[in-house]
Amino acid sequence: AAMSRKRLQLLVESLTRSAKHFNEGEVECLIKLFDALVAKCSSQFAGVGFNRIVFRDTLHSAFGMTDEVVLDRVFSTFDRDNNGCITVVEWVEGLAVLLRGTLDEKIKHCFMVYDLNGDGYISREEMFQMLKNSLLKQPADEDPDEGIKDLVEIDYDHDGKLSFTDFEKAVREENLLLEAFGPCLPDIK
Known about the structure:
Blueprint: H1 5-18, H2 24-40, E1 49-50, H3 52-63, H4 68-78, E2 86-87, H5 88-100, H6 103-114, E3 121-123, H7 124-136, H8 144-152, E4 161-163, H9 164-173
Antiparallel strand pairs: 1-2, 3-4
């Protein structure tokens, strides 16, 4: 059911404040898109939000994001209360970072995506897991282990895993490392 004009306006104002990177018109469009996605979704969350499948399809069709592991992790960064459902607030605030986030916000987002088990570190195993897909597309004569070795050089404290501090320092020195372990941001267009 469509919400009243008044409730919509209050939601738009609130989300424009919390998702700082969008203006009111953009927030309103994102809410309408959200409502359309919820209407399409016949899940137990109907009316409240949409599930992982609708989320994945949307990011795939809108931004060409195809990596299953990455998409699942991006879903997890959006789904802050971890209930399997993206609410309108999680949707707009998540897209604000994904599409218009500052470098700081994007560093945090990417780190959370790559930290598969949520322990605050990106372990070698997590690097392998994330890189497996992107490195399979390398020419046959390139050794995937070499790619990992290059990346391990950003492990500044040499503890065999990347802390947020290691990751942040590396990305600040070389912005291309932001998506070092797989594409978890939409491309520029």
